Amino acid sequence: AGMRVAVVGAGVSGLTATKCCLDEGLEPTCFEQSQDIGGLWRYTEHIEAGRPSLYPSVISNSSKEMSAFSDFPYPEDFPVFLPNARLLDYLRRYAEHFGLRERIKLGTTVVSIRKRPDFATTGQWNVVTEADGKQTSHVFDAVMVCSGNFSEPSLPLHCFPGIERFQGQYFHSRQYKHPDVFQGKRVLVVGMGNSGVDIAVEASHVAAKVTISTSRGAWLLGRVFEHGYPWDMVFNTRLASLIRNNLPGPLSRGLINYTVNQRFNHENYGLQPEKSCLVREPVLNDDLPSYILTGRITIKPGVKEFKENSVVFHNCPEEEPIDIVVFCTGYNVSFPFLEESVVKVENKHASLYKYVFPTHLQKPTLAVLGLIRPLGGIMPVTEMQARWVTRVFKGRRANGSPPVCQNAAQIGHVPPPRGIPGDPRWLLYMDTLASYIGAKPSVLGLLCRDPWLALTIFFGPCSPYQYRLGGPGRWEGARQAILTQWDRLLKPTKTRVPAGSSSSFPSLLTVLGFLLLLAVVIFGF
Questions:
Q1: Cα four-point dihedral sign 440, 442, 443, 448
Q2: How far is it, in rounded angstroms, from Cα 26 to Cα 14?
Q3: How many separate helices (H) and strands (E) can be counted in the chain?
Q4: Within 168-316, where are the H helices?
Q5: What backbone torsions phi and psi does residue 231 show, to the nearest 5 degrees?
């Protein structure tokens, strides 16, 4: 029998972890505490303890070509950015297509995961699960923790003096479902992540007035980016990444600054991030600028204190009357079923090698997936983590396996789940893990064999299919998927044009590509 692996959770990470186990000939059992798969993306009207909670209008932040699993493109008629129901539909199709259903035990909660007494030699774990009130104990050779980080709300009320005497209603964004609670009310949204801005925009349709309080500010990107292409297909290209990562820091920041301020000047809209937050994860919203411009939403600095029926902001003398407050203050990372000593979480950080492996285990048989919040789709990243992890479990320890017991200087500290602060190095991280398993595409190698593909990979979006061109888990359809990504992108929107008129964007890229290549050859820089 193959190596037995316990997968905790059947959301995005758990599904791909289960699939990667099967690909590598391991024996996965996936435990899901709720009655269905989909994790974060499965909307329920009522809020369940220990499970993420969505509001009905949530739409994916990354486009379908950039957030697909690398060997399973979205159906071409799916919209470019996905409403939560469509994303759930995609996850169900993925589970169906790769036969994951029979590996998933629904309604089964993981209560505890503990090292076995002989862990130092076997690396095995005792896993206790509970279903229908009955507990069962299992032995597993390895564990993949895919329980996500959007279940335990972070609501630091002690940071908001006077909240105890505030007479209106307040709640964490996790509780939010429908905007009708804001009907005719004066609303304050505290915090400016994606949820905060979404909720403010929805509230402004029915509220008397909406204010967003943010101490740090934020960059705002629209899903609709240059020339109407999705932001991530323009932003996450190998060329752009190469430029960003090789420019000196101030220049790189200047470039990002210039790019995001092209749509509107953030300072004029009260959104300019503080110096220290210049590389924060951007917020994605297409409506906010026009809502600020039409007075529906006002941006204010951080909250100084609450009064009975009003709030005072820093550096603003006057009080602002409000009726209802939504705290969009994010989530805590927690692993209630693990011992503190296995994954240390301090200040919303967990110290993990490459954001995946606890650093001090004698055997690398436990991994945490999907804790990284990349500037781009989570699916390709967590899938890549799973591909690497399953190979480490199998003992293909050739390269990139986690150092066992090593000093803190080399540990990749995981920043809060909201991102390696807006880490534009999404691609670098993907390439690093891909190189560990031998799946990193070689642009130069391809240039001679398949120049058209090489150019598309370098100048076009870094879509996940690139990581299936070679190495373990190679997928025959990868090349085709890359060359047809713009067709799938245009299919759902270009619905009033004669068939056969194709986009000029890729062909323009090619011309530019050849010119640049010539320059490289001539000047050899």
A1: negative
A2: 15
A3: 15, 24
A4: 194-203, 231-235, 238-246, 249-260, 288-293
A5: -55, -40
- Give the strand pairing for 109-115 and 104-105: unpaired
- E-strand ranges in 122-197 read 125-131, 134-140, 142-145, 152-153, 169-172, 186-190
Structure tokens at 466: 């690139």
**Cα distance between residue 333 and residue 355, in whole Å:** 13
Token pair of 458, please? 């370098």
Of 299, 295, 291, give the one whose Cα is nearest residue 320.
Answer: 299
State the pLDDT confidence band at 452, using cuts at 50, 70 and 90. very high
Sheet holding 169-172, edge to edge: 169-172, 324-327, 186-190, 209-213, 297-300
pLDDT reading at 513 higher than 90: no
Residue 11 has pLDDT above 90, yes or no: yes
For residue 27, the SS3 value is strand
In tens, the pLDDT along 320-348 reads: 999 999 999 999 999 999 998 899 887 76
Both tokens of residue 515?
Answer: 């010119």
Reduced to 3 states, what is the DSSP secondary structure of residue 109? Answer: strand
* Cβ–Cβ < 8 Å for 12, 39: yes
- Reported as a pLDDT band with limits 50, 70 and 90, residue 433 is very high
Whether pLDDT at 432 is above 70: yes
Q: How far apart are CA 206 and CA 201, in angstroms?
A: 10
- Look-up of token digits 């990372």: 333
Calculate the alpha carbon distances from 235 to 69, 232, 238, 256, 460 in Å: 19, 5, 9, 10, 10
Q: What span, in angstroms and rounded, lies between the C-alpha atoms of 156 and 215?
A: 15
What pLDDT digit, counting tens, does each position of 51-61 carry?
999 999 999 99
∠ CA(306), CA(309), CA(314), 5° rounding?
Answer: 35
**Within a 13 Å sphere around the CA of 24, how many CA atoms are in the beta-carbon half?**
26
